[in-house]
Amino acid sequence: MAKETAPRWDRRMQQRLARGEAAALGELYDRFAALVHSQAYRMLDDEDAADLVTREVFAQVWENPEAYDPKQGSMRSWVARLTHRRSVQRLRRAAASSYVAEHGEGATPDPEELERRVRSATAAARADYIVSSMPAPLRQALELAYIHRR
């Protein structure tokens, strides 16, 4: 099955960003900032780090609007992928820094342990996003069944 082309809004937004329209960045931010911040926060569990990732993602979009390829999907999915990548980079750096702090300068963390942490944070963020996106009655039923064990 062929991928759908990106909505007209996405293509126009990319063109406006490429022309350097600051208003376009503001519009994009208004539309996707909550998505970016919540996705980063779910992965990082750190408000300050999520704020930083949010700024980095929108800076990257502003500086490289041509990196968006409408053939690969919507602008929303592109921004979400950028957020995921930035969050993973931050997770890896934080894990490496804490390992060095615990084990001394020159110590190298186990790459498998780092990847396990990244996969765990990614899976938790996805699950949280899926559940929070559900209609309220379904979400409440899941909470009763799995959290409250009723």
From TrEMBL:
Key word Cell division present: no
Keyword Nucleus: no
Annotated InterPro entries: RNA_pol_sigma-70-like, RNA_pol_sigma70_r2, RNA_pol_sigma_r2
SUPFAM superfamilies membership: Sigma2 domain of RNA polymerase sigma factors
Pfam families, per database record: Sigma70_r2
Domain RNA polymerase sigma-70 region: 28-95
GO MF annotation list: sigma factor activity
A GO BP entry: DNA-templated transcription initiation
Entry superkingdom: Bacteria
Gene3D superfamilies: 1.10.1740.10
UniProt protein name: RNA polymerase
Organism: Streptomyces sp. SID7499
